[in-house]
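User: Show me a protein chain along with its predicted structure.
Assistant: Here is one chain, sequence first, then structure tokens.
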Amino acid sequence: MARVRIAAAQINTVVGDLAGNTSRILEVIGQVEQADVDLVVFPELTITGYPPEDLLARPGFVTDNLAALNRIVSASASCAVVVGYVDRTGSGGLLNGAVLCANGEVKRRYAKALLPNYGVFDEQRWFTPGDGTMAPCVVAGVPVGITICEDLWFADGPMARQAQSGARLFVNLNASPYSRGRRAERLGVLGERATETGAVIVYVNQVGGQDELVFDGASMVVDATGRELARAVQFSEELLIVDLDVEVPAASDRTAPSGAGEPVSTVSRVAGGEMVSPNWPELLDPAAEVYEALVLGTRDYLAKNGFVDAVIGLSGGIDSSLVAAIAVDALGPDHVRGVAMPSRYSSTGSITDAEALAANLGIRCETVPIEELHRSFTGSLTSLLGEEPRGLTDENLQSRLRGVLLMALSNATGAIVLTTGNKSEMATGYSTLYGDSAGGFAVIKDVPKTLVYELCRYRNRIGTSPVIPEDVLTKPPSAELRPDQRDDESLPPYDVLDPLIGGYVEQDRSPADLVADGFRAEDVARVVGLVDRAEYKRRQMPPGVKITTKAFGKDRRMPITNRYRPTTEAAKDADVSSEGRGDLP
């Protein structure tokens, strides 16, 4: 039995910040040297940040990343270091690599073998696959194998091959984006690989927001049976230090799978430079998990892109209420500004609800009525159109007036505009181009309307008192762009709409499949038509946090010019030409 002390460095990197990422890596190396750690493991592509995308097309970027790696290797001492970086092949291709170094020398290099090329991943665009093999490196008497992210997910893959070469403990470097239920899925796969290889696995994931992606950390260690031995927190940086007792076979039997006896003796967790309770962190419940993802994604998008303040149009509705709460939790109330912009159709309750929300959150909120602007634009449009604007034209005019005010405030103050559209609206085109879609970051663009309500109720349960007024949670949702308008006049009820969107968008089910699932054919035809027609509109929306298995934007990519229309018999007769609060082509 050999004892090894391993540190999983769950850190928040910034894509392209080679100097900053390297400095953070060196800081952690110094910290673990003081803690007598034998091996510290960092996430996938630690030096470059993940995903570097087409920065990889710049030879200078790759060269600079290799120079940063040399600094890290030179700084390594008695504690072995595994760090992710971009390597070059002999023929000039690129590898998604990891290096194990100690005492100023490279001991092993490994190149990711299985390159994901689906969803948000485009690794085959940039990288050449490795062969998945590596002779184990003995650290503190334990033969250690290295794999990277996707290498973990398939049987008879790199882990199995390295186990046959003698590896008894694996470190797996990850940049695995968050989506609902993802942690449980990872744990299941870890169990499969542990059972297959008879080895302990240390799974290290990065944390933080990067454009539309948010990485949840949630690093963990499992034994040879797949039993979870230790875990790090979700959505925060942390250094997870674990002492492992690993059974190592005799030299004559090094290729035979060998389990770990009772492989954990102590667990330490370091956050913010301070030792925290060695007890395991509690797992977040589903609503808390999504909420924390949205807060972290918003905080990092603003901070990493140089924004300090945010401005939000407060309508008194549930979507803007949730976005305001997330913004306050991400930035603090002093950095969030609300603007209420009532029109002739705004109810008194909506105005008072917006004011109450702002007071509860402790944010500045100003009221700027748009009636005078509305009349002025109506007059100009009347001369242009030959009649007063009406219907959809007049509705969208109001939304665009609000967009003009918010973007002007952004220009004047440097605050980023946070849009308030949810996934149900994005899917169906129930939004106004250059109106409520105008802004720099769409916080809840991947959050279905029914989940918006769930998250608002969750937010009201935490803290000293509820922040979102009860009236906001109970009144029928409305855009308030015409008299007595309600969302359910333009869309199916959200408890019908959201599962339909989930089936069609996230699961790629056909209309026939959805009808077979029990949805009414006319509802299927209507929603499918709306989703397909709104692609041109979604392409112009700002980025936002991905929290589902398939988000619009980087994740789901459909052609705008597209004449394929999956139909059911009912769809042939359904009128889907002008449904929803949106702009016609």
